[in-house]
Design brief:
The complex is a heterodimer of chains A (about 220) and B (about 400). With about 220 residues, chain A is of the alpha/beta class. Chain A is about 35% helix and about 25% strand. The radius of gyration of chain A is 17 Å and the shape is globular. Chain A starts with a strand and ends in a 6-residue tail after the last strand. In chain A, about 45% of the residues are buried. In chain B, strands 2-3-8-5-7-6 form a six-stranded mixed β-barrel, surrounded by four helices. Chain B is elongated, with a radius of gyration of 32 Å. The chains are: A alpha/beta (about 220), B alpha+beta (about 400). The interface between A and B is medium-sized, with 23 and 16 residues.
């Protein structure tokens, strides 16, 4: 399992404004990679492209040797559902559903929600919020909500976790808890984690850092 | 809270549309069933009667002056004096062998004068064979006093319309005089009083055995009409057309005989569907608005669902499901409220009699409730489709970028 980017370029708007400039790199299976850089450097855009949420203007992304631009709609949905877990800055929980039901959402798409209930409870326990299982998101703190979102990302034991500034809305203590969980998932399950962050201390927790300056891969020390 | 209020208002809109459909349909179909019952009492499914042929100049010329050129000073005209079936026996054979026929009953209609002491009343008397007539009509259901079976023995017995009995000042087991204008009056024993709930009919109708009426008219063996009940009432126009083509007698199906009423009923149906259609369209717009607002409020949730692998089809299904829930909830509440409203309307004393009671006639036909429920759900589904489709076409990136 490997993600490979070849000459990724992304442009927006008209006249086209180039956000990513021919990026090439590989993410090995089981790696914990951080994508960091200043605001507007193109780190979230890069994450969306390698996670199949978006397509590059030029260049190709290969996942396990398969060109994702050649995958059909159904294949992409299936890939995202079974092999990818997303964590966003805003947790995006469904407000009408309890924590447990939110965690089971990906399983529900496969009609596996009943058989995954025990696993969901185990994950909530692992996150230290099992007592919140039957509460609505509005009855939980921001940190607890983000942990529900992480449990939702892990419910189908994905091979990849893509996290877009998951600590962006959290206080220092909750941010540390979230980072600790991501590290643990990577170490214990061998899940490939790709984390977008602008916090140097969180970026440093990864095996490797991809640092962006204006859409180019660069060395952090060059960004003065 | 605001969304709960919106959802409640939409449920109310759908319920209101369903309620109106159920109550308007209940009222109209109740009245329609009553009218049709009355019409069928008079005509049955098909009525075969002697043709009231005009006397034509050509026919008279042919009979008296074949092959000669005749110039009439006063041309012959008018109608044949007597209406009778051309060949009753041939009809009996045909009807007995026709698979569309359930049963049939011959009858002789005549005008007679009924007298009870100083009171007299002109009525149309129908001579029937009771054993056959009860199989092609619902007369037994309308007997107010006495028994229809008492006519079966013959022997100058008569059943009177309730208004006729009242005007003559007579009652059950009393004797009245009957005169057909062809000889002396004959005494008839009143063995029953029938009440159809239609004053015009109840004030001018009487029944007696066919042979008694034939005797009164001094026309033994004469039959003026045959009342036919079919196995399928809806085939009446086709069957009547087929028979009419094969005979010189007049064959009329119940719809043709009551064309004006049938057109009125059709107009009522159109009005009913138009009104309820308009209400359901308004309710459907409500569903459309609520779901459109809901989808705008739930863009983030739709984005995450799409991101975790819910395809466009699945999103479409989820939104349609919400619309269907609104339709089912609103529909069921509307059915219940409509049913209760019908019960209440049906219990109001109108102060005048219609169909044997002072209450409005309400139909509780299950088809009304089935159509109302299906319509409510269809309206909700159609109204949900556009916002659902719009939501299904959103990509996660469209939403994330617009956040």
């Amino acid at each position: 399992m490997m993600i490979e980017c070849r000459e990724i370029t992304k442009e927006f708007g008209f006249p086209p404004q180039r956000v990513l400039h021919g990026l090439s790199f590989k993410i090995e299976t089981g790696e914990f990679v951080s994508i960091s850089g200043r605001s507007g450097s193109g780190k979230s855009t890069l994450l969306y492209i390698i996670s199949t949420l978006d397509l590059p203007t030029q260049g190709k992304v290969f996942i396990d040797g398969i060109d994702i631009s050649q995958m059909g709609q159904r294949e992409v949905h299936e890939f995202r559902n079974r092999q990818v877990g997303f964590i966003f800055q805003f947790h995006y929980l469904l407000p009408e559903l309890t924590a447990l039901e939110n965690v089971l959402l990906p399983a529900r798409n496969l009609q596996k929600d009943v058989e995954k209930t025990a696993e969901a409870m185990r994950l909530l326990e692992h996150m230290g919020i099992v007592d919140q299982a039957h509460k609505l998101p509005s009855q939980m703190s921001g940190g607890q909500q983000q942990r529900v979102a992480i449990a939702r990302a892990l419910i189908l034991s994905p091979k990849y976790i893509f996290a877009d500034e998951p600590t962006g809305n959290l206080d220092t203590q909750n941010a540390a808890v979230v980072m600790h969980i991501l590290q643990k998932v990577n170490q214990e399950n061998g899940t490939t984690v790709c984390l977008v962050t602008h916090e140097p201390q969180f970026a440093a927790m990864a095996h490797r850092e991809i640092y962006l300056i204006d859409g180019h891969i660069a060395d952090r020390s060059a960004d003065q | 809270m605001a969304r709960k209020k919106q959802t409640f208002l939409i449920l109310l809109g759908i319920s209101f549309g369903t309620l109106l459909f159920v109550s308007i349909s209940g009222l109209q179909l109740g009245m329609r069933q009553y009218i049709m019952e009355q019409l069928l009492n008079n005509t049955a499914h098909v009525l075969i009667s002697g043709a009231e042929n005009d006397i034509l100049v050509e026919d008279i010329t042919d009979i008296f002056y074949q092959d000669r050129n005749v110039l009439w000073t006063v041309p012959p005209g008018g109608k044949r004096a007597e209406v009778r079936l051309e060949n009753y026996q041939a009809w009996v054979e045909r009807l007995q062998n026709d698979p569309d026929v359930l049963d049939f009953s011959p009858r002789l209609n005549s005008n007679v004068l009924l007298s009870n002491g100083e009171f007299s009343q002109s009525v149309g008397i129908t001579g029937i064979i009771p054993e056959r007539y009860e199989r092609v009509s619902k007369i037994k259901k309308f007997m107010r006093e006495g028994s229809f079976n008492d006519l079966k023995g013959g022997g100058n017995r008569i059943i009177l319309g309730s208004g006729v009995a009242q005007r003559l000042g007579t009652r059950l087991d009393r004797f009245i005089s009957v005169n057909a204008g062809r000889g002396l009056s004959q005494p008839f024993k009143v063995v029953g009083i029938v009440h159809f709930g239609n004053r015009q009919i109840d004030d001018s109708l009487a029944f007696a055995h066919l042979t008694n009426v034939q005797t009164l008219n001094r026309s033994p063996g004469r039959v003026t009409a045959i009342t036919v009940a079919l196995t399928d009432i809806d085939r009446a126009p086709d069957v009547a057309n087929r028979w009419e083509a094969q005979s010189s007698d007049k064959v009329e199906d119940w719809q043709e005989a009551n064309k004006m009423f049938m057109e009125m009923i059709r107009f009522q149906d159109i009005t009913r569907y138009f009104i309820t259609g308009a209400i359901l369209i308004v309710a459907a717009f409500g569903v459309y608005n609520v779901l459109t607002i809901m989808i705008n409020q739930k863009r983030r949730e739709i984005a995450i669902l799409r991101a975790i692998g819910y395809g466009p089809q699945r999103i479409l299904e989820l939104i349609l499901y919400q619309g269907l829930i609104l339709g089912i909830g609103g529909g069921l509440a509307g059915l219940l409220m409509g049913f209760l409203l019908c019960l209440w309307i049906g219990s109001i004393d109108m102060g005048f009699e219609i169909g044997g009671s002072n209450n409005l006639l309400i139909s509780y036909d299950p088809s009304i409730y089935v159509i109302a429920f299906i319509s409510a759900n269809l309206a909700s589904l159609v109204a949900s489709y556009l916002p659902a489709r719009e939501a299904s076409l959103m990509t996660p990136m469209d939403i994330i970028r617009s956040e």
